[in-house]
Design a protein that fits this description.
About 25% of the residues lie in helices and about 45% in strands. Strands 1, 2, 3, 4, 5, 6, 7 and 8 form an eight-stranded antiparallel sheet that branches. A hairpin with a 6-residue loop joins strand 6 and strand 7.
């Protein structure tokens, strides 16, 4: 399953956006209003839960300075990645596109597509306010 958000312009340069996204604790500020729990487990891992949803543990899996940040599920039970692609638009502006890639059976994909799409749109919108 592949989901992408539309790219969002951010009033920060690519380095600032990259630094923000690789500091795990900053993800709390990007979370939707219906967040039930957010906990930093270590410098590369955090856990969160939205109301009515199970807890999800994300780990920083890959980073390419000022270009890309990849978070992935800490568990192999539901393997997926959340990728932020960062493009510089100038000294004080950049663009960030989020994409989700996961391998789920058809029933699971049908159940989670809408909530994940909404979640990603919220992350993208909140990145724009950074």
């Amino acid at each position: 399953m592949h989901i992408e958000t539309s790219k969002k312009k951010v009033s920060k340069n690519d380095k600032d956006v990259f630094d923000f996204l690789t500091d795990i604790k900053n993800f709390e500020t990007l979370m939707p209003d219906n967040i039930d729990k957010f906990e930093v487990l270590d410098e590369n891992t955090f856990k969160f839960a939205l109301k009515g949803m199970p807890e999800i543990v994300l780990r920083l899996k890959e980073q390419s300075p000022n270009n890309k940040v990849v978070l992935g599920a800490a568990s192999d039970k539901l393997p997926f990645t959340l990728t932020a692609d960062i493009t510089s638009l100038g000294e004080n502006e950049s663009e960030v596109g989020l994409s989700f890639e996961g391998q789920f059976n058809a029933m699971m994909a049908m159940m989670i597509k809408s909530p994940i799409t909404n979640f990603m749109e919220t992350l993208s919108k909140n990145l724009g306010k950074m």
